[in-house]
Amino acid sequence: MLRSNKTLLMLALVAVACFVAEPAMADRLADAIAEAKPTGEPGYLGIPGGPQLNIIIGLVWAIWVGWIFSTVGAFGGIMAGVGHITIYGLGDYASSFGKGTKMNKVVTDSIRVSNQWLVGCSAALSSFNYFKAGRLVLPLGIALAIGSVAGSWLVPWLTAGKISLKAYLGYFGLFVLFLGCYLTYETTPKGQASKKAAKQAAEAFQKSVKEQQAGGTVDMAEMGVKVQKFTPTACEFTFFGVEFKFNPLIPVVGGFFIAAMASFLGVGGGFLLVPFLTSVAGLPMYLVAGTSALAVLIGMVNSIASYMLLKSTPVEWGLIGAELVGIVIGSIIGPKTSKFIPDKVLKYIFIVLAVYVGVRYTSKGFLGYSLVPPF
């Protein structure tokens, strides 16, 4: 509890520093302002006539973002995107400048990297908390992270300043919708037929949680992940007495493609990592969130640096500061509550969010209007 309080205090100090800082005014933003010639009171990013953002809304929304990411290991970046694009209206604001304009693209890239700031913070806290609880497969997370480094640097370098908001929204939604459908298949008897180990481990974990709630003495961390063997081509570990194994080379390759796609979409990549970890690695959902968080963390650090250092992408530091405080709160609560949620319910949460977000942004990007209402 003391560590949590220290973390909250540290983030609060960071937020205060962010509140008094001016928005990043890179040459790229100055060029966009010169081209668009907006007028009015300075708002988002210091743009004349830009949206005036309420940081309290950002704080509250970020608590939800931190909780959902630290609970299912996904949708942190996507929910952050919903907040920035829809709740704050930055999507419509970028579109108002017209496709192909510098302002459209700089605001779009700002949304992408702002999403990643929130996910990176949640990933750092979630990785630490799940590792302490014995619910993070460290070799698997590291293998995914190694592959993610190249992917998370490559895409911002190739696409920053070249993607319009409309195209971004369409692709964003399409990939999320596809993965929601795939996870739905995995919940069917046929989809679960090859996941016997994951089901057995999830049942053993749930049984221990119930024993603990009934007053029994159960050392959950001691029964958590225990690595038995690790070589460049084979890794074996146990979780609540159930043995799992994988080839580390596969997540290295998978990590590259996942990080590349996540960096393009401006999200953490958890929505891609969750299907990978449940399908390819065959893990129960109780191990997915922590392992996903570690891989996401490395990708986010690289991608943020790439967007901001290589492509001079600006962010609104005052807003980011408030949101980081909310992320800390949500990310502390998530690991403490997720153990009480059945494994299958965690998957259903993922599926519902995936279908909703997928339909909303696919239709918004490719049709010009959303087929479902906002939150």
TrEMBL record:
Identify the keywords attached in UniProt to this record, alphabetized.
Cell membrane, Membrane, Signal, Transmembrane, Transmembrane helix
- Where does the signal sequence lie? 1-26
Give the bilayer topology.
Multi-pass membrane protein
Q: Where in the cell is it found?
A: Cell membrane; Membrane
Per the UniProt record, which residue ranges are transmembrane? Answer: 60-90, 136-155, 167-185, 249-274, 286-309, 315-333, 345-363
Superkingdom of this entry's organism? Bacteria
List the PANTHER family.
MEMBRANE TRANSPORTER PROTEIN MJ0441-RELATED (PTHR43701), MEMBRANE TRANSPORTER PROTEIN YJNA-RELATED (PTHR43701:SF2)
To which protein family does this belong? Belongs to the 4-toluene sulfonate uptake permease (TSUP) (TC 2.A.102) family.
User: Any idea what this protein is called?
Assistant: Probable membrane transporter protein
Q: Which organism is it from?
A: Pseudodesulfovibrio portus
Lineage at the top is:
Bacteria, Pseudomonadati, Thermodesulfobacteriota, Desulfovibrionia, Desulfovibrionales
